Amino acid sequence: AVVAAGGAGAAAALWSEVNRCGQNGDFSRALKSVNKILQISKDDVTALQCKVVCLIQNGNFKEALGVINTHTKVLTSDVIAFEKAYCEYRLNRIENALKTIQSASQQTDKLKELYGQVLYRLERYDDCLAAYRDLIRNSQDEYEEERKTNLSAVVAAQSTWEKVMPEDLGLREATYELCYNSACALIGQGQLNEAMKKLQKAEELCRQSLSEDSDVTEEDIEAELAIIHGQMAYIMQLQGRTEDALQLYNQIIKLKPTDVGLLAVIANNIITINKDQNVFDSKKKVKLTNAEGVEHKLSKKQLQAIEFNKALLAMYTNQADQCRKLSASLQSQSPEHLLPVLIQAAQLCREKQHAKAVGLLQDFADQHPANAAEIKLTMAQLKIAQGSVTKACMILRSIEELQHKPGMVSALVTMYSHEEDIDSAIEVFTQAIQWYQQFQARTNYGCCVFQPKSPVHLSLIREAANFKLKHGRKKEAISDLEELWKQNPKDVHTLAQLISAYSLVDPEKAKVLSKHLPSSDTLSLKVDVDALENSHGATYVRKKAGKLTGDSQQKEQGQGDVKKKKKKKKGKLPKNYDPKVTPDPERWLPMRERSYYRGRKKGKKKDQVGKGTQGSTTAGSSELDASRTASSPPTSPRPGSTAAVSATSNVIPPRHQKPAGAPATKKKQQQKKKKGAKGGW
């Protein structure tokens, strides 16, 4: 009895210690006291709960979960459901946390809060939105502002990742978190200018709220603003201001923020700016996307985009195996996604395996008909790059949902024209026009009133008519022109084309139609003739026309008193020109091509230079000895001797001198000396 009383007294003292440490926030000391209590009573439910809480407060989530799983008989789901779910959530076991919350018999406010966080991490945004609305409606405490912030974050995620139009929640944007989330929602809808204004407001509110705390330094404020600045840079990048975006991205990286998710997103965006340039910088930045914990900070689409860019970077750096490995992994994760197979095809094209790339794309198109249009467009591009224009046209015509589009019709007609296949080009026009006729018939089913054709339909008919007229298909063009004139009888241009076509086929019909042309009186326009003649353009045209017509030339000659005719300069004749001598008829040909050219004669002295045994001299060697000359030039000119100055100034440096025996060199030196002597005078 005495021992029991002593144990009870010790336990009471330990509980007092636990209570005091808990109030002071000293959970490490509290944990020690709890462990002593558990030594006295190992299955004490309250002590086990306190131990789990102390471990959670110290960040030991794995150990806390181990305690819960070890004492499942004592710590039932009703007792410790929140703590268990929270540990699983912090250990990124999101699916397990969801099961724990759903299995709890009683849904407390704490569990509902955690339930909203779990749904957000699982990207179940509709359920998450409903959970937070229920919390805000049924809760009244000091955490209302945090719940509204989370609610706005859910709306922003829906707008960004699911492209859902954000609804007006009626939240007063009094905090920088709310402003930031509102800006993200606007970015998702493409309203970039409005989003930038929201971010600027968020930056201002953030500085104001943090500057009120004296313990917060400027570095702390910049670290908090990093995510806002990152979003600003992203808007600049979307607007095409890549230099400004890149500068802001690099400023954020220099701050070394602790948020690995933010660093990964910024590094990925820099890689997208670099593309296939500045690959060394991209390889350094890609390391930031591999940091530990990144996969738990970003959404699935963000992680997928990073993996796509890694595969593209591997392709740009000629790491073919790595590119194939990454793209194959992406394709296994998202079999219906286009990008992995496009990256694989691009890599095969870089390896000059175009046929294999086309086969890969064809297999994907057969397996995924919903994405066949985009894949076939890529296949057609590859065929064009190979020079197989006809095969490219066949692929494009197999895309049924795009056959009638004006862009597709224009591309096919251009390609067929390039291949001089006019019949196929006309067939493309015909099929597109028939599609619009059938569409109009389906739309106006049961209606007997005349319905005008759509602008796109009329445009196709006009283009078809112009194309047929251009290629001499007058008879085929007549039916299209008649259809156009029927739609708009006041169209004079169409009527003129119709008359022109009939004039070559049926002149009588052309005369009948010409009666529908408006009279010349109705076509007269009020034009200021004087202003038109005095305009710069009219004067230029009139001058140009005057050179071509003979009448205007006679008028200009009659006005000799007013305009002076410019004298034509006579061509210069050569100095040795003799009018008595007949000029050489071959003077315009190069010397080598003239009939009397016999080649250059080799000089005797030039042939003798360098011949004979080593050390022997030739007859011309004495001429090369400067010491035997009668008068050597002075090393420096005498004052007043201008001729000497000009001669020495024209001496060629030794490494540029030619052999003294060459006649051409002597001639050039003599000419230079003459010029120098003349200049001296």
How would you describe the overall organization of this protein?
The chain is an all-alpha fold and 681 residues long. Among the domains are: 106 residues, Serine Threonine Protein Phosphatase 5, Tetratricopeptide repeat (Alpha Horseshoe); 113 residues, Serine Threonine Protein Phosphatase 5, Tetratricopeptide repeat, CATH 1.25.40.10. Helix 22 packs antiparallel against helix 23. One of its GO terms (biological process) is SRP-dependent cotranslational protein targeting to membrane.
Number of separate helices: 35
Question: CATH superfamily name of one domain?
Answer: Tetratricopeptide repeat domain
Shape-level CATH architecture of one domain: Alpha Horseshoe
* Strand runs, count: 0
Secondary-structure-based class equals mainly alpha
- Structural Rg: 46 Å
- State which percent range the strand residues make up: under 5%
Approximate helicity band: 55-70%
User: Would you state the CATH class of one domain?
Assistant: Mainly Alpha
Subcellular location: Cytoplasm; Endoplasmic reticulum
GO molecular function: 7S RNA binding; ribosome binding
Pfam family, one: SRP_TPR_like
Keywords: Coiled coil, Cytoplasm, Endoplasmic reticulum, Repeat, Ribonucleoprotein, Signal recognition particle, TPR repeat
